[in-house]
């Protein structure tokens, strides 16, 4: 082909690509046709970070819903008066006449080392990170003019005490470590003067330009919207904002967005958004979803929590397996301190998960759900109510044998023609019910060089592990690969 023809072909092909590119209109029916970029559900595991002025008091009563990032609301936002324990803590440590905003002077981030954070995240095995760019307190971790102007005071990290672009610096380090970077963004602010006076004025003059500033400057791969519950999606102009995001923004092709865009949107509009579960039981295959939880019971660092309030490393890895087997992602939260350190117990938990994934990651990343997500033992399967918020669901309890009910024996994922069977612990014999692999199937245990064999027994496939000793296994929760 002549060079001139090649050049003409390139122009025509490029033009057809642009012309054929889909434009989304500002309605859910159109936005839902976009779908969720494939990288997200393939990644399976992300790190959530709650960090803001609330890291100074880092206080909440310990228990379900004991979120330290809600400290200011517990002091000044409740309609039934301040939370007694929170008020007593504040008065005792800061003084009765000291307003929450003054705590910003102690939000120094003086020991913040973004490269060290990013290294811990990389070692955890996570594939993406989501930082609170702004929580409901309105304080932004980047230099945003709407934040300080709408408050009539310095209310962002660059102009405020840290004197540093905390969000930008972490973003650079995370991306340098090979991970994707995203941001949590609260649509509303509890006490923003404009929000309290005129919600639509706040949306048009603060929220929308602030959101576009964040996206345009820092180009997130994930947006975790929140604080949507006081208004409908129509009032928030959510579909218009998402149409801008998917049509015009610099991340229009890559970005994934959660389902929190109005009081009427959670659990809906799969395809336009992924669905969220918060300390919940999660969801089942068929939708793109993500479970988010803290390592403890709070998201922001809560110094009232002790070692027994933190989930054990094995339980966190088990949670990841359970969620992935059902087609979901896990967004696991850490809460740094006001001076910019990740508490060592949180670092240890993340590194432990990474060590398990170093051996068993093939059964997690880039996998899909199998025809069964898990296998129960004989007995009555307990009733489980699906809830995407504050359920009492515990997979750690469900794997424990009990006299009055069945327990979960194993979990399944698949990749191509390979089946992964993940077992919570050693058993001498594994029976996969109603399964017949190819006669040429190769069996192995990930991270183990001991040979194993299986045979067909009626409708079931039985794998003999009796020649193994528990010490032969690389991890207590281990994976059988049937290739």
TrEMBL record:
Pfam families: Alpha_L_fucos. It comes from the Bacteria. Its EC number is 3.2.1.51. Keywords: Glycosidase, Hydrolase, Signal. GO terms for biological process: fucose metabolic process; glycoside catabolic process. It is an enzyme of class 3 (hydrolase). GO terms for cellular component: lysosome. GO terms for molecular function: alpha-L-fucosidase activity. Residues 18-361 form the Glycoside hydrolase family 29 N-terminal domain. Belongs to the glycosyl hydrolase 29 family. Alpha-L-fucosidase is responsible for hydrolyzing the alpha-1,6-linked fucose joined to the reducing-end N-acetylglucosamine of the carbohydrate moieties of glycoproteins. This is alpha-L-fucosidase. It comes from Chitinophaga sancti. The lineage of its organism: Bacteria, Pseudomonadati, Bacteroidota, Chitinophagia, Chitinophagales.
């Amino acid at each position: 082909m002549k060079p001139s023809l090649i050049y003409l072909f390139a122009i025509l092909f490029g033009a057809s690509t642009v012309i054929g590119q889909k434009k989304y209109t500002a309605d859910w029916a159109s936005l839902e046709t976009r779908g969720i970029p494939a990288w997200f559900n393939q990644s399976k595991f992300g790190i959530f970070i709650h960090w803001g002025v609330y890291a100074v008091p880092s206080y909440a009563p310990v228990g379900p819903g004991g979120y330290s990032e809600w400290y200011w609301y517990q002091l000044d936002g409740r309609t039934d008066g301040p939370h007694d324990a929170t008020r007593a803590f504040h008065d005792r440590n800061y003084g009765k006449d000291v307003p929450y905003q003054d705590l910003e002077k102690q939000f120094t981030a003086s020991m913040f080392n973004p490269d060290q954070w990013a290294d811990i995240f990389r070692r955890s095995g996570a594939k993406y990170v989501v930082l609170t760019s702004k929580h409901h307190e309105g304080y932004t971790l980047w230099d945003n003019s709407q934040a300080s102007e709408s408050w009539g005071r310095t209310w962002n990290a660059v102009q405020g005490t840290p004197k540093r672009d905390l969000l930008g610096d972490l973003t650079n380090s995370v991306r340098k470590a090979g991970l994707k970077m995203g941001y949590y963004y609260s649509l509303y602010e509890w006490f923003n003067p404009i929000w309290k006076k005129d919600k639509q004025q706040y949306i048009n003059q603060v929220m929308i330009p602030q959101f576009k500033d964040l996206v345009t400057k820092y180009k997130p791969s994930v947006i975790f919207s929140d604080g949507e519950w006081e208004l409908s999606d129509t009032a928030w102009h959510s579909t218009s904002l998402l149409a801008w995001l998917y049509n015009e923004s610099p991340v229009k092709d890559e970005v994934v967005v959660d389902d929190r865009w109005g009081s009427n949107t959670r659990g809906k509009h799969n395809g336009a958004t992924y669905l969220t579960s918060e300390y919940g039981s999660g969801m089942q295959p068929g939708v793109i979803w993500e479970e988010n939880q803290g390592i403890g019971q709070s998201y922001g660092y809560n110094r009232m929590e002790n070692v027994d309030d933190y989930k054990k490393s094995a339980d966190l890895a088990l949670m990841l397996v359970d969620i992935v087997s059902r087609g979901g992602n896990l967004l696991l939260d850490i809460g740094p301190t006001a001076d910019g350190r990740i508490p060592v117990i949180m670092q240890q938990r993340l590194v432990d998960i990474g060590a398990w994934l170093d051996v068993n990651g093939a059964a997690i990343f880039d996998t899909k759900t199998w025809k069964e997500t898990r296998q129960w033992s004989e007995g009555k399967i307990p009733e489980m109510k699906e809830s995407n918020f504050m359920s009492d669901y515990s997979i750690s309890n469900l794997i424990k044998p009990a006299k009055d009910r069945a327990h979960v024996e194993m979990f399944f994922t698949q990749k191509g023609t390979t089946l992964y069977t993940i077992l919570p612990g050693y058993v001498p014999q594994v029976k996969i019910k109603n399964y017949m692999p190819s006669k040429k199937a190769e069996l192995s245990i990930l991270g183990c060089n001991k040979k194993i064999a299986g045979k067909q027994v009626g409708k079931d496939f039985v794998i003999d592990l009796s020649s193994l000793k528990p010490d032969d296994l690389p991890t207590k929760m281990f994976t059988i690969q049937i290739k």
